Amino acid sequence: MSFLRLALVASLSASTLASGPAGNENYQFQARNSLRSLSSTNRLNVRGDLAPVGISIEQTSYTFSIQDGTDDKIYISPAGDKFKKYSLSANGRGSLKQEVGGAIMPVTAFDVTGQSQVTCDTMGDAVSKYLSADDVWNEAFMQTILLKSDSPISFSSDLHECLSTHWGISVVLSTAQTQGSLQGIDIKTVSGQDVPAGPYIASYNASSDTVDLTEVFRLYRDQEQAFTTPLIPFADGQSFCPLAAQVDGMNTISIPVPSRLYTKYLADPRPLEGVRVAVKDLYDVAGVPSGLGNRAYWLTYEPRNVTAVSIQRLIDQGAVIIGKVKTSQFANGETPTADWQDQFSPFNIRGDGYMDPSTSSAGSGASIGAYDWVDVTIGSDTGGSVRDPAANNGAFGIRPSHTAISLEGVMPMSAPLDTAGFLTRDAKEFAEFGKAWYGDRFESYGQKPKTIFVPNDYFPLPADANPGAQPIYDSFIDSLQTYLNASIDTRSFADIWNSSGTMDQVQQTIPLFLNETYPTLIGYYQWTNFGKPWFEDYASQHDGRTPFIDSQPAVRWAYGRQRGESGYQEELRRKNVFKDFFSTHVLKADNETCTDALFLYPINTGTTSYRNGYKAPPQPPFGIFNEAYAPFHEGPEISIPLSQVPYNSTITNHVEYLPVSVAIMARPGCDYVLLDLAAGLQDAGIISATQTGSLTYPLK
Ligand SMILES: *[C@@H]1O[C@H](CO)[C@@H](O)[C@H](O)[C@H]1NC(C)=O
Ligand SMILES: *[C@@H]1O[C@H](CO)[C@@H](O)[C@H](O)[C@H]1NC(C)=O
Ligand SMILES: *[C@@H]1O[C@H](CO)[C@@H](O)[C@H](O)[C@H]1NC(C)=O
Ligand SMILES: *[C@@H]1O[C@H](CO)[C@@H](O)[C@H](O)[C@H]1NC(C)=O
Ligand SMILES: *[C@@H]1O[C@H](CO)[C@@H](O)[C@H](O)[C@H]1NC(C)=O
Ligand SMILES: *[C@@H]1O[C@H](CO)[C@@H](O)[C@H](O)[C@H]1NC(C)=O
Ligand SMILES: *[C@@H]1O[C@H](CO)[C@@H](O)[C@H](O)[C@H]1NC(C)=O
């Protein structure tokens, strides 16, 4: 019996074992994959400046690759005291220690509780289930299996041949008493900690005389350059070790993603158990510094000791934090050429791959559009920073009602406007995740809103929209009207404003009245509450020097200083005048539906925004823009993808496709009306989940 062993340094040659005859298994047999080790010291580099004192993943982790067809899958298994491990001791037949020896050994744990007999079929079913449920687990981990059960198990007569021919298994570990033999296969009874299902690396620890199973993470390439810091949780699950690992040929950092099997079969899963989440790099995560898109800022402070309240809430509910993703600087709006001066803008994979990912949750948008190994990305939204990246990258995104969740431990932009939002590719996951995160802060309603605002300032679309977009909106609005059994109101915003009485009071149109509101609320607030104290800390560390900041925040902060406290108070007053107007005349309270109406506008019409296009020099964001209405009236807004449209790319000289998205606004507190709506529209087949990659949907 031969099985491959992983030696730590020696490179094992890949050897493919011949597959046996098909037998009676009812699963798809796949050619057995081979494991080979990488030299841990050469292939993975830990940036010493990032690693917390005393921790070097390089010294305490196993790295290896699995050749799966043409795909070279790279893995890391962090070992040592700081990381999660399960210790086993062999107290039955045979010595586990001898088996592992000085090497390491791949193991797969299966839960066979309730099965009195383990057969080739039950193993085959489990293997098929694992393969379809998880992108990390691989049959290469079937060199040793651990069968978990609390009652005695017996083996079917076909099991020996099945295990040895299909997977070359020569050792079976079992936590239960076993009956029957497996001929040449060594069966060892082990005891120790309960091990969740999934892949592990086993190693023998002489000082504790135990065999320790460490968790396995697959390392993914971050081709779109969306991440700033990959993270591996320490054993307590509460703080994180930055893994600045780079695998040869990747040219980017590598993101560690744990097996989904660890959490998939838990008896009592928490609401977000195993959901893989990437977090915008302006939320604090314990163990790493917060970068906020600025190099000088990243160096100013120690790693954070406390995770932001909102992110802690995700961790407490079982979410897996896999890394931090890029924000444009201090969450200010930036376009790739040439605003991203201190950090490189992530790539938007849609279409030709050279569109602006939008901002400020640029990494959140780019990663959700590109990586099927990421489930949800956390962004923040002050004036469109979740909704626009969601629209540009073909994803669902929400800006919740103001005060939906605590922003403690999050960089402020403008406290009256800041919110914590997120992005997904699936409307049902969108609703489930939102309800788990925002909790009982909001309610669902049995009845649906009765009116849809489709203002004639937005529909029909402007001339620069992609010609394919108008029919998509027409068809969506028709379907939405039928779905809600609602009436359509096409009055323009200006009409409603002019006839509201607010106009009589302020004697100004909306664009004039609110012209300087947004730039003042962000510029003054962020400079006063964030920029100024940081400049002082930086100066005291650097002999009075000033840190570098990108031109966009520089211009906005300078404008904020110019407006001062009295300007800020005046603009806050104007924002609140608008809020009163909006909640009295546009989206009104309704006991049965929460919001009597929904307000629609087109948020991505499939127009191109090439990342190599030069824009005008920065200036404060004067004027009113669509994305500002929700923040000004403090209500929720979702951005949902509807379809995709073709365009002739000037990059590829080929037809490519860009997503088309709509924004839908509701009254403050009616967040779940929007989440339920998105999920309901997907159930009804009116919208669908998006896929990763250049195409947001498969071509029909
Ligand atoms: C081995 O066990 C000892 C004693 O429990 C422990 O201090 C040490 O960290 C372990 N080594 C590893 C690599 O886990
Ligand atoms: C974290 O705690 C350590 C030890 O108490 C302290 O030195 C450090 O300044 C703290 N870091 C931050 C960002 O507060
Ligand atoms: C749709 O709404 C109208 C009036 O608003 C009502 O009379 C009708 O019964 C509703 N139809 C359905 C299917 O609920
Ligand atoms: C609203 O009122 C302003 C100021 O009187 C006027 O210029 C504008 O045309 C009006 N808009 C509409 C749609 O009535
Ligand atoms: C908005 O304010 C800026 C700065 O004061 C000014 O330059 C611009 O003309 C104003 N725009 C409108 C439409 O009033
Ligand atoms: C809504 O509920 C409140 C409180 O129960 C009640 O005072 C109000 O009259 C209700 N409004 C409508 C339109 O039913
Ligand atoms: C692309 O360009 C060709 C040639 O000008 C034109 O016929 C075609 O309609 C264009 N396609 C799209 C999607 O714009």
UniProtKB/TrEMBL annotation:
Residues 1-18 form the signal peptide. This is Amidase domain-containing protein. PANTHER family: AMIDASE 1. InterPro entries: Amidase_dom, Arp1_N, AS_sf. Residues 99-208 form the Scytalone dehydratase-like protein Arp1 N-terminal domain. Residues 268-448 form the Amidase domain. SUPFAM superfamilies: Amidase signature (AS) enzymes (SSF75304). Keywords: Signal. It comes from the Eukaryota. The keyword ATP-binding does not apply.
